[in-house]
Amino acid sequence: MARLERIPVVRSRWLIVGFSALLILLSAALLFIKGFNLGIDFESGLSQRVQVAPSGLKVSFEGSQGAKLSVSDGHLVLEIRDSGGVKASTFALEGSVADLAKAMEAVDGIDVTVIDPSLDASLLITGFGFPATLTQSPFVLNFAASDGSLVTIDLVRKALSDLRNVKVQSVGEAIDQVYQIRIGLEDGADSQALERQVSGMLDAAFGPDEVVTLESSYIGAKFSASLITSSLKAVGIAVALILVYVWLRFELAYAIGSVLALVHDVICMLGLVLLCDFELSSTTIAALLTIIGYSLNNSIVIFDRVRENIKANRLIEVSEHVDRAVAQSLARTTWSSVTTLLAILPLCILAGGDIQLFALEMSFGILIGTYSSNFIAPNILFWLAKNPKLDPRKEKKSRSLDDEDVARDLMGDTRKAFDVSNDHFSKYRQKREGK
Asked: pTM of this prediction?
């Protein structure tokens, strides 16, 4: 297959600029129309992950000493402390809930009430209450439903519709019935009271003891504001350091081109977040910083080819150097992007939660970064080259020692040496004649 010597990147610059301008305008329009879906990292409030799961057992302890229930390596562990020490009993999470209840009732002081004997014991949900301290008040064990009607995300949103600024997202497969709930909280509000309110509303909608709180966290207003400031600083410092690095390694025109291409990538990435209503969280910031580094690497490869081509012939127009450099580097940048996408694709399909979000944002970032490295950054370099001070073809003040320079310097040194020798000879001759 014949290799392309030139790709008309510069000649197609107005089409490329038009396409990029459209992406930027769409991103700006989405920002004003929709706004970001701020995660709990950047918005003060309560974040809970809950799972709707039927209750299978109620366990209580009638003894005077302490009892603790936990899960370890696929077994339910019951530890009872008395005057003689700690006695531990383990129960394999196999068979039905009825089988598990029969085994636990054999322990003195343990009272077990079976709610749904048909549930699978291996599908025990270890929620926010584990490890659990058992008392005379029954502790409910929930088990994931393997069949039957599912509680959809719309039903969860309807159950919490009376709350202000509430966001509900599905986590994992629909059959798991796991949901992330985020609720904005005003300064001075009681987070514990809000937790109890959410729990009561879910119990009223789906039945008491049918919803398990897997995790719960609260972010204050000051902390969320500091996270936003720190994230903006991180992106700004990364771009500034990249500008300095490329300036030192190449020239100012290359640095400006690479940084503007990175700004283009960041805006387009945020546009995707707005379009797909992805959550803007610390995961998104991590994806942005990763894409900045990945896109810069491709730009450096292309700019290095431009610089080498210019060294070989400074008389050719910059547009031709740019076209040839893109053609010479296109296969490398394209295949590196393809191999990276192949590694990330399984995470986009099989993973869930923040990992899947990071993989999806990374995939888009790789595509847009490859586009900007091959078409945006080279064209910016071409436009900057029209300024004589930024023209990369201009020789630096510290010239390289090519053959012509070496010959010129040698001739100058030889002439100076001849003049000095001639002066010494004239003085010696005058002394001889004086004698």
From this structure: 0.62
Contact 82, 63 (CB under 8 A): yes
Architecture of domain 13-41+223-384: Up-down Bundle (1.20)
Burial class (CB in 10 A: 0-12, 13-18, 19+), 69: buried
Domain coordinates of the chain in residue numbers? 13-41+223-384, 45-50+148-221, 59-137
d(CA 202, CA 325): 61
- The CA–CA distances, whole Å, from 213 to 128, 131, 166, 246, 375 equal 5, 13, 17, 50, 49
Angle at 176 between CA 171 and CA 178, to 5 degrees: 40
Label residue 23 by pLDDT band (50, 70, 90): very high
pLDDT tens-place string over residues 89-143? 888 888 888 888 888 888 888 888 888 888 888 888 776 667 888 888 888 888 8
Round to whole Å and give the CA distance between 122 and 125.
Answer: 9
CATH of 45-50+148-221, one of 3.30.70, 3.30.565, 1.10.238, 3.10.620: 3.30.70
- 272-295, pLDDT tens digit by residue? 988 988 878 778 888 888 888 888
